[in-house]
């Protein structure tokens, strides 16, 4: 009888977990929301990618408020719990939190280069120069006192930090440069720029749909680039 009751409880817990995943409800562990998990790592060193200062490994959870950092010649793909993927190129350092008033994902990115597929969830990107509302596929580059957005699909709304009320719409196939004081006029991407943008999104497109939950993978599964 006790065995039957235990199996019944486990079944109920698994069923409730499945409901949470399908309905987009937040995943919480020890009172902290899980923003996402490490999907894929490519690096030249064992600690080339870190999560809150800890060496990253495949399937490692990322909790709200934690910083993910990539070093030289290192890249990582993150799968968000509420949907969507993000690839960080080398020397990139975002912090992920949830905006409680809107329940949008807030990505605070201080430097580096990333490709984001929001996967249908609302995302706010905050850089030293800009703020942007994103529900699309976009390339974000923060360098030299400016932020450059290249939109592959959909549309974003972007504003300079000095003028947050003056928002500029940037649509599919366009790019825009933002400094702390102004948003430059958006322009169409050239054919070469568009090809390069599509190529940069290939690693995200090649990620397969999630399968059954996996346990943590030993660090030896990290792909080391020679």
Fold topology:
Layout: H1 2-23, E1 27-29, E2 32-43, E3 49-51, E4 54-55, E5 61-63, E6 68-70, E7 75-80, E8 85-88, E9 95-99, E10 104-108, E11 112-117, E12 123-126, E13 130-134, E14 137-143, E15 146-153, E16 155-160, E17 168-171, E18 174-178, E19 187-188, H2 191-200, H3 202-205, E20 223-224
Parallel strand pairs: 2-20, 10-12
Antiparallel strand pairs: 1-2, 2-5, 2-7, 3-4, 3-6, 7-8, 8-11, 9-10, 11-14, 12-13, 13-16, 14-15, 15-18, 16-17, 18-19
Q: What percentage of the residues does DSSP assign to strands (E)?
A: 35-45%
CATH fold annotation? Jelly Rolls
Mean pLDDT reading? 84
Quaternary structure classification:
single chain
Which descriptor suits the 3D outline? Answer: globular
Overall domain count = 1
Main beta-sheet annotation: 11 strands, mixed
Concise structural overview:
The protein is an alpha+beta fold and 226 residues long. It has helices spanning 2-23, 191-200, 202-205, and strands spanning 27-29, 32-43, 49-51, 54-55, 61-63, 68-70, 75-80, 85-88, 95-99, 104-108, 112-117, 123-126, 130-134, 137-143, 146-153, 155-160, 168-171, 174-178, 187-188, 223-224.
